[in-house]
Design a protein that fits this description.
- By secondary structure, the chain is mainly alpha-helical.
- It has a domain of 26 residues.
- Helices cover 23% and strands 0% of the residues.
- The radius of gyration is 25 Å and the shape is elongated.
- The mean pLDDT is 79.
């Protein structure tokens, strides 16, 4: 559902928009860099299994 569809169905707004939704929630352009920093890259992966040594 796009804004143009709503305007077609409901007509124009009775007041001028002061801010857009993107401005309010802070969403940037689609080409924004969203890569994780190095310390968080494997946050959802199991750590490598280390050789366990048993001391008696």
């Amino acid at each position: 559902l796009q804004k143009e569809d709503l305007v077609e169905i409901l007509g124009p707004r009775p007041f001028a928009e002061k801010q857009t939704y993107e401005e309010i929630v802070g969403q940037g352009p689609l080409d924004e860099d969203t890569t994780l920093p190095p310390g968080l890259r494997d946050w959802n992966k199991e750590p490598p299994a280390e050789a366990k040594t048993e001391s008696s």
